[in-house]
Amino acid sequence: MHIITAYLMDSQFKKKLKGVKAEQCLFAFLLILVLFLTYLNVTGTYKISLRGEGPIIVHESKIIDLREMTLRQKISQMLILFGQEHNLNDVRLLNPGGVYVGAISADPQGFKDASYRLQENKSVPFFIVTDMEGCINPFSAFRTFKAFKDINTTEEAYQAGLEEGQLMNELGFNLNFAPVVDLEDYIWKCRSFNSGPVDVAEKAEAYIKGMHESDVLVTIKHYPGKTLLANDPHKEILRTEIEDRDVYPFEYLSKKADAVMPSHQITGGVVDTDGKPADVSNSALNTLRKDFNGLIITDDIQMLGLKKFYGNDAEMYIDLFNTDNDMIIFMTNDLPKVDQMVSIIEQAVKDGKIDEKRIDRSVIKILTAKGYTVL
Prior knowledge:
Number of helices: 14
Distance between the termini: 53 Å
Strand content: 5-15%
Number of strands: 12
Largest sheet: 8 strands, parallel
Low-confidence stretches: 1-20, 33-48
CATH superfamily of the largest domain: Glycoside hydrolase, family 3, N-terminal domain
Structural class: alpha/beta
Strand order of the largest sheet: 10-8-6-5-4-3-2-11
Helix content: 40-55%
CATH class of the largest domain: Alpha Beta
Mean pLDDT: 88
């Protein structure tokens, strides 16, 4: 505000205004003032709306008492947010359980710096996550790998997991949204191993072994299969019939994978989602839980395959937390919207629409996966 006033009062500026109608000057001044105040209001609202709850209390021997966590801290631990160069500090403020980092740098040091900025002085570190699928590679500016479709043997799959895992670990990543165990990929044509169920399962097992030897957790996706066929779940609601062969890799890997990502598809057949997308279907997730005890992590809830199913976001949020999802991916640049989501879930728990014990179960699993003992 001081800058605008000083500029208008400057004698040189006054000379330039000679011959210009007073009404035009007034209009220009008011326009500048409105724009400036709008900027202050928007940025101020953005900062104020991000309600960080402070650090989670951690006792000796990495013990966390769930009773010492606020409800808001618990809900936030269940979120994986989108981290970019410009918003890392604000993402830290929201204290999510994980941060997804894509291709933010053309050199390794940029990723190392981002990881350090995120984790610095955190009482409970984030999962720092990306997708390593060969053809989709956030580090392609300085390192390339084979696409999954070009991996022909289990030995090659193990080596891919080992080398990719070593790079991820070096750059500060600890969770991979891979491998894809859908049997075919007709959309991107490179993200799956593109073979029969036994071959896909065995290659994925070898890939996971390499990742684990590099101290990186893995996520098999997209349950219950047939997600990468003719239509794109990023753009539309999908419906398909699931066969035994589609779910075989998930069953085979249920004791080996750290996490499973259910899709937004509505499915029938051997996995019936009761007319709902898989990640908001109690029927589908209960079937998954029969053999799998690890983390269930949704696909990005910004994808239209899920959003189009709902009339409003609040209803979608409550369904996501009411089903057996442990973590929810929210890839938005609108961080106040994330804060709003946490407030909606917080109120839903207080109103009895969501059982806090259900949230506690997921938080215990998340913190245990991070190496903590939860009381």
